[in-house]
Amino acid sequence: MLSSFFRTSKPIHFIITFLMVLFATGYYIITHPYLGWGYVWIPITAGLSIGLFHFIAIKNEFISNNSYGIWLYSCLLILVILYSTSEYSFLAYLFLLLALRRILSMRTGKQMTRKIFDASLWIAVACIFYSWSTIFFTIVFLSITIHAFKNLKYWAVPFVAISTILILTFTIDQYFTTNLWRDFFSELNDNLDYTNIKFSSDLVFYSSLAFLCLIASVAMLLSFPNISLSARSRFSVLGFTGLCVVAEFILTGTALLTIPIISIFLTRLLQEQEHKVFRESVLWIPLIIIVATIFFRI
């Protein structure tokens, strides 16, 4: 049923997934003891990320013109929200998606300086809200290596973007006393403490996401022989992005950015799989987990 419904791409699919995410984020805000209407931007951020993910996936031909991707993406996003994550990581996540869009567009070879600057700028902005976003600067330099290794001026562009954000945040710190710099360095010290880690459903869930993201990333990197030469650079960037996400999870325990990688990987499996029972199972399982999670937490 779900496989037939989401086989094409229609506006109704976006409406359904957006309302699902809106309900889940609303539930998260209402039930969270320290949040309120001041955090209404969380549903907006989550909703915008659906359209941004779909644009990235379709524009770079990671998936064909169907809605499997936004369904899986929305379900996984809801699950991460229900298992509660840092509220400001939602903002960082949106900026990192914007950066990924610019990084992947570097494959055209046009306006490289602008694209590198934009990607680096978005990552630097993400670092304000979540310090460990700095890991994703490695993807920018990887893309420069792939697309323009010999052009030395491109290697300086990320540092220009970083300097721009540093100057702006320093100015804001001095004028408004926001302590952005102090928060940035204190968050970098908040590593995942494995010595005091305890077994829980949250740990199992996030670890499962990270493991699935690792499998997806390795599978993308190993599938080069079956991918056209023009598409290999895009899949290599996506694969290495997944590895950075896994590294971030190992260091901090945050698995929010595993969602787009897993969604693209599962969608490609669904597109290549003709067995209807398999497709239905993959599409239904996340929804069943969502319902069960809400039921046991009420």
TrEMBL record:
InterPro entries: DUF6427. The chain crosses the membrane at residues 12-30, 36-58, 70-99, 119-142, 154-172, 203-225, 237-265, 277-296. The keyword Membrane applies. It comes from the Bacteria. It holds the Pfam family DUF6427. Keywords: Membrane, Transmembrane, Transmembrane helix. This is Transmembrane protein. The lineage of its organism: Bacteria, Pseudomonadati, Bacteroidota, Flavobacteriia, Flavobacteriales.
